[in-house]
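URGENT: need a sanity check before tomorrow's submission.

F., can you look over the Beta-galactosidase record below? I want to be sure the sequence and structure line up before it goes out.
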Amino acid sequence: MKRTPPAPLSVWRTLNLDDFLLGVPHYPEHVDESYWLRDAQRMAAAGFNVVRLGEFAWHLIEPQEGHFDFSLFDRAIDVLACEGIKTIFCTPTATPPRWLTSTYPEVLRTDEWGRTASHGSRQHADTNSPVYRIHSRRITEALARHYAGNPNVIGWQTDNELNTTVSTSYAEATEREFRRYLRDRYETIAALNFAWGGNFWALAYDNFDQIAVPRKDNPGFPAPGHLQDYHRFLAHATAVFQHDQVEILRRANSDWFIFHNLGRLEDIDFRGQFGQDLDFLGFDVYPMLYDEMRRSGGHPATQALHLDICRAYSGNFIVPEQASGFGSQPGFSTMTPEPGEMRRMALSSVARGADGLLFFRWRPAHFGAEIYWMGIIDHDDVPRRRYQEAVQFAGDISKIKPHLLGTTVRMDVAIAGADFDNQEAYKTYPMGMPSPLEDGLLLHRYCYSRGIACGFIHPEDDLSRIKILYVPHWVIWRPEWNENVEAFVKDGGTLIVGAMTGTRDENNHIPTELAPRAGLSRLCGVRVEEFGRLAEPGADGLFGLHGTEYGLHNPAKRLPASSATRRYSFSLGNQEYDAAHLYELLRLDDDVKVIGRWTNRFASGRPMVTVRRFGNGRAVYVGTYLTEPLVEALATQLFAESNVQPLLQDLPPNVEVTMREADDRKLLFVLNCDAEATEIKTPPQGIDLITGRRVEEKLTLGPHECAVIQF
Ligand code: GAL
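Structure tokens as predicted:
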């Protein structure tokens, strides 16, 4: 597996490996050694080429401080290698052994109520702790040195889903590190006081040692700048923790590829040092975990959303863990992929940019807190339908692979994403409003269900391949993004700027100029003179339904619409709609055209959606937040002129479609996400790489069946 140096981060980046990684996370330490050879033979027979090992095995590798024993994994790696299966090893820092937490209890995480994590589950160690960093470096050094010359170890995963159980820390050591970070960032306390607005509520500090980590509701709301810097610090500390490991691994063997498997994207700035250090990103795919969440839209749409978000950070990625069956921990369980669905879910990941995929896990554990998290084979060691589907997927990959590698995922409509500062700025001051992601996902859902190529992109990225860029109320808009975005519009692109965009600077201060700030006003020809809250249709205006940061994300708080709830409406394209969440009143430059207006109460007649032509393109401003009907209205107004068409006409319900493309080829993935057969009336004429048959008139897909049409 050849690795070349990674290209700079971009949604258009392809993987820097010359083969598709295919296999499973595997836990040889969970079974008797007599299983190992049969396991390896079955993996090879399935068509796998790799396993991931060791992420929770520190206690076996270093049973006592300074005493290392690699023998179990050495033997396991050898047995696997004899069957042609290579190993990705992991730094095992998600689960420090008991001797470590007993001898160095200060490495345990402290929560915001001052409780120290107990030893008994995982991710109990604090990656912000300088003492824990020493041990993380020690175990990484030992592993790196031991495996540097082993040709069967081809790459590394750092830790396991950093920050997924918890990302915050309130330990004394964290507080000290936080102060150190602030000292480096601001140099003088006067600069920090300015940034955090020290003259508001007498929050000015005399020196850095007085600063505490912010605590929610203790008793009131902390200053936005304080909170934002705490999360910037957590992301910095996570990156530094990982950087230690990356440095050691790269020094030991520069041929190794290194990635991290992301779970929840909490306090990780992937476009910063964290992502720049890695060869590529890994994203663990468990869409059924979200099935019961409000607005999830079903697990196929959730999987598509998560992978599109993830791709915005770094382009093509691998899936180090792809859900294969029923999943549970003691407190919850997920729905079960139906026959055929595990393979379809894996192909959906490939369709959205996965150039490697490992099914979680080889076999389920017989003990511990995930005994019912099913694997590819069952507890009785019998391979059944999930194994057969893995075999089928491996066959699919061997047919697709020669055409797939080197392609990127097409995106006609892009939503601004992958910006850590905006994600956090929202959380410092959510006001019960939808987050940028909650807003943007309405557009994503619209495109997903109609087969329009849609995804996320950072405004600094190469925008030349997209047709529409929607910015969902990013409160921080940086002047350095303007040139790229202006060039995109000038070259014919359509920029759509949502309300509240560019209302703050990087300190979360409201500037003295009217929003949208930093050049966007000029580009859109719009200034926001007034804004105010609107209730979500059917809800009372008093309680926000959004905003996880202050416990507001609680549907139980939803109140019935009272008679006092005011309805605000607007018109767009000869139709009238209810508005939600926010209104803005706009002042326009002379060259701006109004295409949507407020239609009732005091705002009646004022512009709501505007268009300014610029070069060959246009800058559209939308003075409210999205709702489903508004997305539909905007699409009707704007998509055709931007030449945005579905990838397939007449897409039947529950069929997913994406395109992976390179200069010389297009691969259209058509995936039936349902248990009913379906028919595609006007498929492109080409070869279905999966069946090897030419597709001409219509395409019939059985339950959970997939086609990959090359043309
Ligand atoms: C992932 C985690 C795995 C396993 C899996 C199923 O988030 O990385 O270790 O716990 O979920 O729960």
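My own read: The pocket of beta-D-galactopyranose is lined by residues 160-161, 263, 284, 321, 327, 360, 370, 373 (CB under 6 Å). DSSP finds 17 helices and 29 strands in the chain. If you see anything odd, call me.
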